[in-house]
Fold this protein.
Amino acid sequence: MGDVYIDIVGILQGAGLAVEVNGINEGWERRSRSSGGFNAQPLGVQWHHTASSASVDSDLNYMINGSPDEPVGNVLLGRDGVFRPIAGGAANTSGKGGPNSFSRGTVAKDSGNTQLFSIEIANNGVGEAWPQVQIDAAFAGSNALNAAFGNQPSDVVTHALGAGDGYTDRKIDPATADAVQGPWRPRSTNSSGTWSQADLRGECNARAGQGPPPLPGPDPDPQPPADWINWVMTNVPVLRKGDSGIYVKRMQHLIAAHGFMNEANVANYDGKFGSGTDSALRKFQAAAGGVVDGVCGPWTWGALMHTIDGIGDISNGDTGFDVKLMQHLLAANGYMNEANTSNYDGDWGSGTDGAKARFDNDHGLAPSPPTDCGPKSWESLIMGYVW
């Protein structure tokens, strides 16, 4: 029997969120499934929808008193953005699935009920609108809970399989993506509208002020994370039509490098995500075999950065597509003339070397020359880091 019970009210109210305890959910503090409390602090937060259009009190009563699998979930989040605690201990809702890896460990197969904290969000899952107040509360609550558990904000998992990395292939929640209201709009990963788990994790990071996370401080020689490619793709901002800025400009250059925008047309590199950029991105997504939604999230960034095939370490004298990508990013960051298409020839000669040396010296990548392009350089080129 586990003996760890979560102070749901204390954690959520401490984050400034609305919490309600009424006659239905009283006793939540020691409520749990038959196995009791958690064996340790949960390794992550799992997002569900209730698949119900009933009132919040009706849902709450069913989850606590009516379901054969009671208690269902640890907390219910209403359409009004108010949390109602259900069970401070391990609950029933995750079913079969997994395994899943998180920052502090791995949830073993079929062990989600005892190793994950579950948020049940009131929504019928078949097209009902997700109010922004509910979405904002879900992110704030998830981040507060993960912080209390000692986890990273991105230690979240969808109930559904989603884009290949959710918890189970027998569920569709949370859904539907097109019904999400507010500025954050997740991609849909299947015909049921299941949210992209990658988008969910990226937004958790962003709302926790970790998009991108800060570089190490006092370390005299900071190094990229071992899994630097996935780290970059997860933490680079998700871009949508209407966005603007340096990340859009970098994306436009990468689209052009792949041949879906005219390299010679400087107007394509205006840093504004308009109709032309949207059309080009969708054509790229289709050609790359991804979800064609005009959203540049982790998968699309990865495809643009050639990480599916494995982007390599390159150096002066090399040739090839990775050199071309670097040249475009040097231009996007202001170190090569955007209008001169000979700068994008995929040949690391003297002109490219001079531009890379200037970039290196401005971004703490000295000594340079000799010049090369490895993990530190790629992170600086795509995210602007100064080491």
About this structure: The domain at 228-383 is CATH 1.10.101.10 (Muramoyl-pentapeptide Carboxypeptidase; domain 1). Residues 211-220 have pLDDT under 50 and may be disordered.
